[in-house]
Design brief:
By secondary structure, the chain is mainly beta.
Length: 279
């Protein structure tokens, strides 16, 4: 059915939008292995507007299939929900690029193996407005052999081959985080109080803006001038708007910062240190 091609990749589906298309594609003799998304990293931070390019790679093995044909397409998508009727489907702007690593022939078949790589290109404003951070995602590896049917007005779907492997592991999508700090006064008299304010925000995919992350534990840290190591002084909890404020007595010159350890939905982040001179 045309839906199978749509599930494989939207770009391949365009040729089969005609209502008269009712035939079923044949099973393509293609398998996938060593599928890796996001270089094996567990999470992908996504902001509010910038496109995020998530790399993937896999090995494709084809039997009696011309993988060099211009209309042979393969790649990886991320989906949420059911593989047949996904709640969300994230895919690349282009199919994967592949290189043949081996080809063996026998009296009955030709087996071709190639390594493939590409990117899933995420547009948060268009694709994540209905998605909660921490939602479970899956990976599907797919291949489509159009066999010339993509360029005809009345395509014969029975001549199109489709292969998919669904339910593969996928990285989590996290709301990108930001953390600010400002320590004052500058300079400060030794033994007097330094006030350290800041704000922890994260991407809101519904509004395409950053919003305060409330009731989160954030560490106040200090690095003495000439040192490369920050020391944790206390833990401060963000307000309902994500703001931070605390005080500490000044003793030596150095850098003040806030540091957030992260959650399952939001990545860790540390503010750049704010230098205060002690007189």
């Amino acid at each position: 059915m045309a839906q199978q091609v749509k599930a494989a990749h939207p770009a391949a589906a365009k040729a089969f939008a005609a209502p008269s298309v009712t035939a079923t594609p044949y099973p393509l003799a293609v398998t996938f292995s060593a599928v890796k998304v996001n270089s094996g990293k567990a999470a992908v931070p996504v902001g509010t507007t910038a496109t995020v390019h998530v790399p993937y790679s896999f090995t494709l093995t084809a039997t009696d299939t011309d993988v060099t044909a211009a209309d042979f397409l393969t790649g990886v998508d991320l989906y949420r929900g059911s593989a047949t009727t996904p709640a969300n489907d994230l895919y690349g702007d282009n199919p994967a690029t592949c290189s043949i690593t081996s080809s063996t022939s026998s009296s009955t078949s030709v087996i071709t193996t190639e390594t493939c790589k590409g990117t899933v290109d995420i547009y948060p404003q268009d694709e994540l407005a209905t998605v909660d951070a921490g939602a479970k995602w899956h990976t599907v590896a797919w291949a489509v052999a159009l066999n010339g049917q993509g360029s005809v007005s009345n395509p014969d779907m029975s001549k199109v081959g489709v292969a998919q492997q669904t339910g593969l592991a996928a990285p989590a999508l996290q709301r990108a985080s930001r953390l600010t700090v400002n320590a004052s006064p500058e300079p400060v008299v030794k033994g007097k109080t330094v006030t350290i304010v800041g704000s922890l925000t994260r991407a809101n995919w519904d509004t395409s803006k950053y919003a305060g992350y409330s009731t989160q534990p954030v560490k106040l840290q200090f690095r003495k001038k000439g040192s490369s190591t920050y020391t944790t002084l206390k833990t401060v909890t963000t307000s309902s708007s994500g703001s931070l404020k605390t005080t500490y007595k000044a003793s030596v010159d150095g850098y003040w910062r806030y540091s957030f350890a992260g959650t399952s939905t939001t990545p860790a982040v540390s503010a750049a240190g704010d230098y205060v001179d002690v007189k």
